[in-house]
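Re-running the complex after MR caught last week's input typo. The corrected sequence lines follow. Everything else is unchanged.
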Amino acid sequence: MICRIKNSILMKRKKSQSEMENILKQFKPEKKELIHILHKVQSEQGFISPSAIFEISKYLRISEGEVYGVLTFYNAFTLEPKGKHTLTICMGTACHVRGAPAVLDEFSRQLDITAGQTTEDKYFTLETVNCVGACALGPIAITDGHYHGHVTTKEVKKIIDEVKEEKGKNRK
Ligand code: FES
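Corrected-run output:
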């Protein structure tokens, strides 16, 4: 039994190593490629794992601390696997004064998670952001990159349902 678990861990490690090798060989081993590599890893693997940080640092010949410092500086990167769909609520000043906190609370209540968390079924990740440059449309909710303007608490269920049905993708 222990052997089988060890084998499964080793196989997963090998798979993730070869995925990383495939990503890394698309970039020159130069420090200026760090952001591009992180974006690629984030989009292909959904997050930046500790082993990815190690592989990147080895490839670029920089410290793991340096990789970590850059990836934690930007909101675009995450250290934990995200859900299949990301719901982002703008909490910038303009959205805040127009009711974003109540909208965020309603998403939180309906999904039973707080900002920064992912639902148990790994379907939704709830996030906040500070201003996306569309203040006149606040409060703003973004579902997988699609902007919903003037969102009210009453619309939260509809937005969640649209994502579940994957209808929301083409709505403007
Ligand atoms: S404050 Fe929300 S878009 Fe600017």
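None of the earlier attempt is carried over here. The longest strand covers residues 85-90. The pocket of FE2/S2 (inorganic) cluster is lined by residues 90, 92-95, 131-135, 138, 140 (CB under 6 Å).
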